[in-house]
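## retry 2 of 3
previous attempt timed out at serialization; input unchanged, resubmitting
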Amino acid sequence: MSKLLGKVAIVTGGSRGIGRDIAIELAKNGANVLINYSKDEEGAKKTIDIIKEFGGYAIKVKEDIKSFKGAKNVVDAAINKFGAIDIIINNAGISSLGLFMDASEEDIDNLIGVNLKGPMYITRHGIPHMIGRGGNIINISSMWGEVGASCEVIYSASKGGLNLFTKALAKEMAPSNIRVNCIAPGVIDTDMNAFLQGEERKSLEEEIPMGRFGSGSEIAKCVVFLCTDDSSYLTGQIIRIDGGLI
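## retry succeeded, writing output
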């Protein structure tokens, strides 16, 4: 419970899925957590209720991180409430299936906005508060950011950009004792993958060497590892958690 005692963490997209599991695991380890969400008020409240059940502490802030100002508001809320920021988890993300040639300008702007610009904006506003105290920035990418996926071209491009953002920023921030890493999940059992049912799900599970989808808690436990001194010499890395799929 004390690994992250007193630390302050921002988790974007914390109202459900992997983001919820990350927020819970950070709180279980003693962190005070700000949960950012854009639409799902009830989901954000549920995350907080779960955290409160075991004595953790969290607040929620509704903002659209595609907006430079919205991202600043998230960071400002953390500073106003807790007085510091130690951990930034850029988890918020959206996906869309379809042929790239059918994509609209809105489709492209939306995916790049949430998946790449959002993490950049949150990090841009958060870093000045981390200088002088150190900290950890963890980006949640995807295995498709490394190898690309047909019919998820924009999504793959946004996550590939997030991977290189991680590597470049890690080099820039290392002298300030701010570590920047990335987790690239494979197929995780979340609402985003709920459309995979029956034979379609079974067929995909058979392609995964470990024979199953991953869980959000498995991603969350890696996040905690990256936020502690157990990984004190680890920065600029893309850690793929995909059950051996690629």
